[in-house]
Amino acid sequence: MTGSKVRASAKLTEDSMLRAYRLWFEHTRKCDDGCKGAGRAQDGCESGRELWDTYRRTYAGESR
After folding, report:
1. SS3 (DSSP) at 54
2. Packed helices 46-60 and 16-30: angle between N→C axes, nearest 10 degrees
């Protein structure tokens, strides 16, 4: 299996909790509005806090 097929396969099996965490993590690495370098997720920008809340709800099994 080539590298691109492995990545495609991994993306197909990514569950909603991991996706929510990945989106938050990628956001915090790029955000200049407060998330980058913040000690806690709650100290970040509004978008970062919303992404973190989505991750927490998904982790807990809540739909919204």
Report:
1. helix
2. 160
C-beta separation of 29 from 20 below 8 A = no
> Is the confidence at residue 4, as pLDDT, over 80?
no
Residue 30 structure tokens:
């790029």
Give the predicted TM-score (pTM) of the model.
0.71
Q: Tell me the mean pLDDT in the region 33-40.
A: 84
Other Cβ atoms less than 10 A from the Cβ of 18: the count is 14
How would residue 20 be classed by pLDDT, with cut points 50, 70 and 90? very high
Q: Which residue has the tokens 């909603």?
A: 16
